[in-house]
Specification:
about 25% helix
Length: about 220
């Protein structure tokens, strides 16, 4: 599994896109939430890296357990996540959503970026995860309410409900992007290990010149 730097090279070796995302940019001045959006009665607070990390990891595991397509993460990933610092951006910040009782139900990791010649900066949302729709909406309301920001950039799931929360969905400009690429080397094991959103039954044939042991006819059912 990998994130492809050059699609043409990876495709020649049998890799292909396994998941896709939506790269979005929001014009902050055009973002108006619909009047019927439920933000809940919670609050959003900023946490430092040391305080935020255990909270963020716990929320991520809750979302992963109830969703399809969220990968398992080890300590190395989280250490890299907190330490990475892309050129031209500020420090990673963390906003956590808490319910009225204090339970943490969502988080957003983001940075500020100032493009050359731009009067205002851009808010780059590195990651947002929430266990409820109200937490999801409240976090986006918090992010779009940050001052001295011209726009927001993020890479989201293609079915992210953000655009349905806005009065004008055209405030979001989006473009499809490929995410995880995979190269099956044990077809039966790979298909059996994943989960499926709906019942499925299909028979298909695999032809693989580079890894001939994967070739064969398979029946997929759930």
């Amino acid at each position: 599994m990998l994130r492809a730097a050059e699609a043409g090279i990876c495709g020649r070796f049998g890799y292909g896109p396994a998941s896709r995302g939506d790269r979005v940019r929001l014009d902050r001045r055009s973002v108006v939430f619909r009047g019927d959006v439920d933000f809940g009665g919670g609050r959003v607070e900023l946490l430092g890296a040391e305080q935020a990390r255990p909270v963020v990891e716990q929320i991520y595991e809750r979302v992963r357990a109830d969703s399809v397509g969220w990968p398992d993460r080890r300590g190395e990933h989280w250490r890299a996540r907190w330490s990475e610092h892309p050129a031209g951006t500020g420090a990673l910040r963390c906003a956590v959503h808490r319910e009225p009782g204090g339970a943490a139900t969502g988080y957003a990791l983001y940075r500020h970026r100032r493009d050359e010649g731009a009067e205002l900066g851009v808010l780059v949302v590195a990651e947002l995860a929430a266990v409820s729709r109200t937490a999801h909406a409240a976090l986006w309301r918090f992010l779009t309410g940050i001052d001295l920001v011209q726009g927001l950039e993020a890479e989201r799931a293609v079915d992210d409900p953000l655009r349905h929360l806005l009065v004008d969905a055209r405030a979001i400009r989006s473009a499809p992007v490929d995410r995880l690429w995979v190269r099956p080397v044990e077809v039966a094991a790979a298909l059996a290990a994943r989960r499926y959103a709906v019942p499925v039954e299909v028979v298909f044939e695999v032809v693989d010149a580079l890894c001939p042991w994967t070739a064969g006819r398979f029946r997929l059912y759930d």
